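Technical annex B. To support the medicinal chemistry partners, we prepared a structural model of the target in complex with magnesium ion, based solely on the information shown next.
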Amino acid sequence: MSDNIRNFRLSDIEENKGYNRVILQIFGLPGNGKSSFINSCKFVIDGGVFVAHAEAGDNYKGTTTKRIPHELTKSIWMVDNRGMPTLHRFQTGEIFAQLGNLLKVNQEVEWVEDFNKNVDRMWAELNNEDSLQDLIVPILIHSVRNNIQKEAETYRELLNTARELTGITPYIVLTHKYSGGVESMKSVFTNMGIKKIYTIENYTTECQSVVREKHEEIIEFLTEVLEDIKFRVIHMGDPREERQRHYKFIIKYMKETSDLKKDEDYKNKNSEESGKKKGPCFLF
Ligand SMILES: Nc1nc2c(ncn2[C@@H]2O[C@H](COP(=O)(O)OP(=O)(O)OP(=O)(O)O)[C@@H](O)[C@H]2O)c(=O)[nH]1
Ligand SMILES: [Mg+2]
């Protein structure tokens, strides 16, 4: 099965619409195992000794700050990401722009609040013909140690938008599987209507011994992703038109975010002046 993954080529699909690279775009909270998941997938596909290609850090530290692409096979790349500290709209907007293929890789990930700057960044990428060959698959990495019951509705909206933008229901990869609590975390996501949930104990610098179950889960995950892509690529529209549609959606989202921020600042200023406490930070 791992040979099927290594040999997969988008060019072998007749109606490939010009796509020739699969981008597994990772996103999630800081320190939840995003970089370690990339290292685990590379270990399973490359074989040999474990190498920490993507720098993994201490728990919840925010080690990765750039979107660094890692080559898994000739056709499949995994793009590491900065962790979103919250699901504030400035952060989710950035993730949407990544998923909409409207931000360059290999750049620092910033939670840009300036609307005009966001328009400029995305406009530049909208005209980048090369990245039209990239087919983006959304992958949420989440540790079972992080309870998100209270934020479930916000996650549901985030995942629905990710599906709208990419045409692919986001894959959920739950890390720290051996910490327990897997079933209750799985049920949080199944209640959102998500079926593709994988539970992983990552290979890390500390734990590199090959475990059959760990290998199998990763192979199963990658195999399913490729099946999805075969279906998706045939049914999707023209990449250029899709990206223009994403651009309009994300610009609208960012404009609303900017307006909400102005309203919030205004209210906070007034309540400060009248001696009241600041309002909570708005979410999604
Ligand atoms: N036991 C265990 N440890 C893990 C697992 N995944 C990651 N870790 C550890 O958790 C810490 C954070 O992992 P990273 O891979 O750096 O997480 P990240 O999401 O990339 O973090 P940022 O880049 O900081 O956002 C590291 O010490 C990893 O070794 C896992 O599945 N099980
Ligand atoms: Mg990282």
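Notes passed to the chemistry partners:
The beta strands are 21-28, 69-71, 76-79, 134-143, 171-175, 197-199.
The helical segments are 2-7, 34-46, 89-99, 115-126, 152-166, 182-190, 212-235, 239-273.
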